[in-house]
């Protein structure tokens, strides 16, 4: 059976996920409040839907890619949202970096109407979303994850099931904490080397060949820190 897939939130992350699925032959529809985001997604093979209600009612798997936890609550439990219009058997996959508490709250409420909720926050940035190489840390019941897996495999390179609902966001928060620490410590290391008249780019090459390497030294600093772009690519 072909799973009809919908994406709510077509920014740099959600738009990339939707386009990747469409490029692999999935039946993908999308909704966004931005007409520009809808047009961009349509140009990449995603079917634009003008009303959120229509999308919620028409898909088997519904992916959320939203700014933060309160938006997840609004889309899932608010007026005109998933709890109101989602049909029994729908699986919601939330890729938002949310909170464990919100994931569990939403899952409990949606379960009352036979809707499953999976928290699957992602890592890899817009490039990872656009190329299907991003990673996912997943909180879900085994049966729900098995049903959603074909879609998740189509939009990501690595998937780690870390526990039941909420566990995905616990893992993502831990990841973000470490990423922030690495970014700060790399900045201190580069500043120290600069005071010693060392070339930052050469320093990073050395760090990346040794045990001090991290996502900050391998990706963040070379891509958007040393060039002073300070743009991680998110919308």
Automatic annotation (TrEMBL):
Instruction: Name the domain of life.
Output: Bacteria
Q: Which residues form the signal peptide?
A: none
Q: Which UniProt keywords apply?
A: NAD, Oxidoreductase
Organism, by scientific name, is Pseudomonas avellanae
In its UniProt entry, what is this protein called? 3-hydroxyisobutyrate dehydrogenase
The family database entries (PANTHER family) matched by this protein are listed as:
3-HYDROXYISOBUTYRATE DEHYDROGENASE, MITOCHONDRIAL (PTHR22981:SF7), 3-HYDROXYISOBUTYRATE DEHYDROGENASE-RELATED (PTHR22981)
Q: Show where the 6-phosphogluconate dehydrogenase NADP-binding domain sits.
A: 5-163
Q: Which residues form the 3-hydroxyisobutyrate dehydrogenase-like NAD-binding domain?
A: 166-235
Which InterPro entries has this protein been placed in? 6-PGluconate_DH-like_C_sf (IPR008927), 6PGD_dom2 (IPR013328), 6PGDH_NADP-bd (IPR006115), HIBADH-like_NADP-bd (IPR029154), NAD(P)-bd_dom_sf (IPR036291)
Q: What is the lineage of its organism?
A: Bacteria, Pseudomonadati, Pseudomonadota, Gammaproteobacteria, Pseudomonadales
Q: Which GO terms describe its molecular function?
A: NAD binding; NADP binding; oxidoreductase activity, acting on the CH-OH group of donors, NAD or NADP as acceptor
Q: Which residues form a coiled coil?
A: none
């Amino acid at each position: 059976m072909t799973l009809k897939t919908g994406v709510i939130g077509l920014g740099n992350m959600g738009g990339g996920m939707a386009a990747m699925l469409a490029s692999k032959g999935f039946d993908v529809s999308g909704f966004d409040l931005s007409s520009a985001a809808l047009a961009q997604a349509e140009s990449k093979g995603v079917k634009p839907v003008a009303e959120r209600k229509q999308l919620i009612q028409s898909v088997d798997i519904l992916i959320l890619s939203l700014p933060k936890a309160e938006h997840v609550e609004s889309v899932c439990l608010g007026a005109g949202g998933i709890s109101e219009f989602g049909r029994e058997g729908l699986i919601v996959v939330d890729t938002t970096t949310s909170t464990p508490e919100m994931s569990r709250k939403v899952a409990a409420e949606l379960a009352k109407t036979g809707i499953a909720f999976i928290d699957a926050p992602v890592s890899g940035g817009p490039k990872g979303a656009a190329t299907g190489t991003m990673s996912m840390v997943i909180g879900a019941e085994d049966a729900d994850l098995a049903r959603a897996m074909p879609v998740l495999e189509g939009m990501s390179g690595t998937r780690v099931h870390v526990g039941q609902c909420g566990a995905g966001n616990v893992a993502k928060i831990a990841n973000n904490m470490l990423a922030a620490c690495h970014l700060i410590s790399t900045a201190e290391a580069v500043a120290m080397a600069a005071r010693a008249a060392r070339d930052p780019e050469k320093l990073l090459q050395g760090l990346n060949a040794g045990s001090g390497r991290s996502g900050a030294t391998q990706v963040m600093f070379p891509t958007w820190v040393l060039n002073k772009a300070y743009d991680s690519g998110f919308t």
